[in-house]
């Protein structure tokens, strides 16, 4: 069965107007009287007229689509960031096409190249934990493809970037544990290649140095798949507890690592009280037992800001040459998991 769509010609024929008059009226042109606009818009609504996106893209030489590349949609941070992206994009008339790298550099490359081949108007990219070679993104950038990095960014490509203040977020969380009396604080983080992992490690180190606590390299464990593999988390914790000096607190540096690590520790049922805090945007942190102390990132706002900057690039009539890196503040939410119990 053929699906017949309503066109501008149909509206013009029904109202006895020219197609150019109807087209201008639908666009709100100043050349068309208010009365004519009202007639056209009311009739278009009555017959459920919708502009043909293919025709519009050919006319405007734009697809009105934005490609998004993230590691994993189920990650609490990225699900919130995507909501922020969509809240801006759809209000500005853009569709959002989302792909996942699953922390694979090869899959990330396929996703980016697929978006480019589909002629998206721009790309929002959060790099995978494996990404080292950025040449294919550099080539797209040099050819004029608008690209904005968010959360997991890079200094190798000159464009807009949006991320959280990972350094201060990590420093404040580590300091909070120190103020609670913990002195042997371990740090479980993701791939050392990621900008966020480097920034959070530096914030953790800065807090230790500020309070004259020696940095212990054996207290830092890397989970290069970002917590996507449970065994990786278990191995990191097991290695910490094999050390002669065992940690009295753990600070975790990513969403999935935080929730999985906390679950593994609960199963271990360690005899000594263990302080715990971590980066995560989970909305059920207060439902954990004990409730989780977390560093919450402004994920929704990061998504919004990145999208606004990208659309500015897309719609700019001249090549954009001045770029900025926007760093948004995090929030430390203190709950029982990090509070040291006072003995009676």
From TrEMBL:
<dbReference type="InterPro" id="IPR010982">
    <property type="entry name" value="Lambda_DNA-bd_dom_sf"/>
</dbReference>
<dbReference type="InterPro" id="IPR028082">
    <property type="entry name" value="Peripla_BP_I"/>
</dbReference>
<keyword id="KW-0238">DNA-binding</keyword>
<dbReference type="GO" id="GO:0003700">
    <property type="term" value="F:DNA-binding transcription factor activity"/>
</dbReference>
<keyword id="KW-0805">Transcription regulation</keyword>
<dbReference type="Pfam" id="PF00532">
    <property type="entry name" value="Peripla_BP_1"/>
</dbReference>
<dbReference type="Pfam" id="PF00356">
    <property type="entry name" value="LacI"/>
</dbReference>
<dbReference type="GO" id="GO:0000976">
    <property type="term" value="F:transcription cis-regulatory region binding"/>
</dbReference>
<keyword id="KW-0804">Transcription</keyword>
<protein>
    <submittedName>
        <fullName>LacI family transcriptional regulator</fullName>
    </submittedName>
</protein>
<dbReference type="InterPro" id="IPR001761">
    <property type="entry name" value="Peripla_BP/Lac1_sug-bd_dom"/>
</dbReference>
<feature type="domain" description="HTH lacI-type">
    <location>
        <begin position="6"/>
        <end position="60"/>
    </location>
</feature>
<dbReference type="InterPro" id="IPR000843">
    <property type="entry name" value="HTH_LacI"/>
</dbReference>
């Amino acid at each position: 069965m053929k699906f017949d769509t309503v066109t501008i010609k149909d509206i013009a024929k029904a109202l006895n107007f020219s197609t150019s008059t109807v087209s201008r009226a639908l666009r709100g042109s100043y050349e068309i009287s208010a009365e004519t606009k009202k007639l056209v818009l009311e009739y278009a609504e009555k017959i459920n007229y919708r502009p043909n996106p293919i025709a519009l893209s050919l006319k405007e030489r734009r697809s009105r689509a934005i490609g998004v590349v993230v590691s994993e949609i189920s990650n609490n941070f990225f699900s919130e960031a995507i909501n922020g992206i969509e809240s801006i994009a759809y209000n500005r008339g853009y569709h959002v096409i989302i792909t996942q790298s699953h922390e694979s550099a090869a899959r990330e490359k396929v996703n980016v190249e697929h978006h480019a081949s589909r002629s998206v108007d721009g790309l929002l990219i959060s790099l995978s934990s494996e990404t080292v070679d950025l040449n294919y993104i550099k080539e797209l950038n040099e050819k004029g493809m608008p690209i904005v990095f968010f959360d997991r960014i890079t200094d190798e490509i000159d464009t807009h970037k949006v991320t959280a203040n990972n350094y201060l977020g990590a420093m404040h969380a580590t300091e909070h544990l120190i103020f609670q009396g913990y002195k042997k604080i371990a740090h479980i983080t993701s791939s050392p290649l990621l900008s966020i992992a480097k920034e959070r490690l530096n914030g953790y180190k800065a807090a230790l140095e500020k309070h004259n606590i020696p940095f212990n390299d054996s207290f830092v464990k890397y989970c290069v798949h970002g917590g996507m593999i449970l065994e990786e988390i278990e191995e990191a914790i097991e290695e910490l507890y094999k050390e002669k000096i065992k940690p009295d607190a753990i600070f975790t540096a990513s969403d999935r690592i935080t929730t999985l690590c906390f679950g593994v520790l609960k199963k271990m049922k360690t005899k000594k009280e263990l302080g715990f805090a971590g980066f995560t945007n989970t909305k059920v942190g207060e439902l954990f037992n004990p409730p989780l102390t977390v560093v919450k990132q402004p994920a929704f706002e990061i998504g919004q800001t990145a999208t606004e900057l990208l659309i500015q690039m897309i719609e700019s009539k001249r090549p954009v040459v001045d770029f900025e890196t926007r760093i948004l503040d995090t929030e430390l939410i203190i709950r029982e998991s990090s509070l040291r119990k006072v003995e009676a």
